[in-house]
Amino acid sequence: MQQLMTEEIAKTAPRLYGQDGAEDPTVYAHYFSCVNGWDWWLLEFDGTDEAFGLVEGYDDELGYFSIKEMAELNRQMGFAAVERDEHFSPKPLSAVRRR
């Protein structure tokens, strides 16, 4: 199964609160689900599990999400219910936010 958190993303993404107060923070990774249509846009990462970013699901909001929980869901389902967009390159949050 696909690795959701690569070494490159983990090293590049700022630690939690690293972009706090930024007018237009940078998104470092995009995750999506083919099951429920949700998207997660990673802005910050704690280095082990917890991420902070834009979550587009029932509502669109900035919040925390667990990379380990996504990977565990994939293992339990037996397929990639959550995937990492392998073609995504870092860009400002304003470039990915739904209008």
How would you explain this protein's 3D organization?
The chain has 99 residues and is α+β, with helices and mostly antiparallel strands. The chain has one domain (7-95). It is 17% helix and 33% strand. It is built from two helices and seven strands; from the N terminus they run αβββββαββ. The strands form two sheets. A five-stranded antiparallel β-sheet has the order 5-4-3-2-6, with helices on one face. It has a two-stranded antiparallel ribbon with strand order 1-7. The longest helix is centred in the last third of the chain and has 11 residues, at 67-77. The radius of gyration is 13 Å and the shape is globular. The model has no long low-confidence stretch (mean pLDDT 95).
Topology:
Blueprint: H1 7-12, E1 26-27, E2 29-33, E3 39-45, E4 50-56, E5 60-66, H2 67-77, E6 82-84, E7 91-92
Antiparallel strand pairs: 1-7, 2-3, 2-6, 3-4, 4-5
Keywords for this entry:
single chain, 99 residues, alpha+beta, 33% strand
**Number of E-type strands:** 7
Count of the separate structural domains: 1
Q: How many DSSP helices?
A: 2
Which residues sit in consecutive blocks of at least 5 with pLDDT less than 50?
none
The chain-level mean pLDDT equals: 95
Gap between N and C termini, in Å?
32 Å
What is the quaternary state of this protein? single chain
Q: Describe the strand arrangement of the main beta sheet, using strand numbers.
A: 5-4-3-2-6
Based on Cα principal axes, name the global outline: globular
Question: In percent terms, what proportion of residues is strand?
Answer: 25-35%
What would you report as the Rg, rounded to the nearest angstrom? 13 Å
The H/E string reads HEEEEEHEE
The secondary structure category is alpha+beta
Helix content: 10-25%
Sheet bearing the most strands, described? 5 strands, antiparallel
